[in-house]
Design goal:
This protein has about 180 residues and is mainly beta. Helix content is about 5%, strand content about 50%. The chain contains two helices and ten strands. The protein is elongated, with a radius of gyration of 15 Å.
């Protein structure tokens, strides 16, 4: 259940796009995590029964490594997400929202801002952790790239069904493919 809850939080910003006609090549891989004291938040709380929830948060992208010139200067970033969906402890549906990634280069200087858009209106899976952070970059560095990721909660989510969850911390990996 813990991967599922974190997926519900982050999936409001990005969901899995349709399969492309050609095989995409991963051009950038980053570690992702919430900052201490800054969980992704839900209003109202995510609980046992489905309801419309607004989620927002910020994730740090660190240790980015590239395999292509298009991503050579992208070393870290800050992903902010905001969106709504019909969420519950084991999933999320009807996702609307977007995210922005502020990129930083090898020298620590600003390297641009990308917009991350959801590709589907609904996510249904018993393991949405495999679809986490998935979508399409529509503007900015890596425009046209498909994103995919996995994340696992690093905070206690065991009370989701009984008391609900208003925030969650997590960590994982995010990839960008062209």
């Amino acid at each position: 259940m813990s991967k599922i809850l974190f997926a519900a939080v982050v999936c409001v910003a990005a969901t899995t796009p349709p399969m492309a006609a050609h095989a995409a090549q991963t051009v950038l891989t980053c570690r992702i995590s919430t900052a201490a004291g800054q969980p992704v938040t839900f209003t109202p709380a995510v609980g046992f029964l489905p309801r419309t929830v607004t989620a927002q948060g910020t994730l740090a992208l660190t240790g980015c490594s590239s395999t292509a010139p298009a991503a050579a200067n992208l070393r870290s970033g800050r992903l902010t997400v905001h969106g709504t969906g019909r969420a519950f402890c084991t999933g999320v549906q009807n996702i609307r929202g977007k995210g922005h990634i502020t990129w930083y280069g090898a020298d620590g200087g600003a390297a641009g801002v990308s917009t991350l858009r959801p590709a589907l209106a609904q996510v249904r899976s018993h393991n949405p952790g495999d679809m986490l952070l998935s979508g399409t970059i529509t503007k900015g560095p890596l425009a046209g790239a498909r994103t995919a990721g996995t994340a696992t909660p690093t905070s206690d989510v065991s009370t989701c069904a009984t008391r609900g969850i208003t925030g969650v911390h997590g960590a994982g990996t995010m990839t960008f493919s062209l």
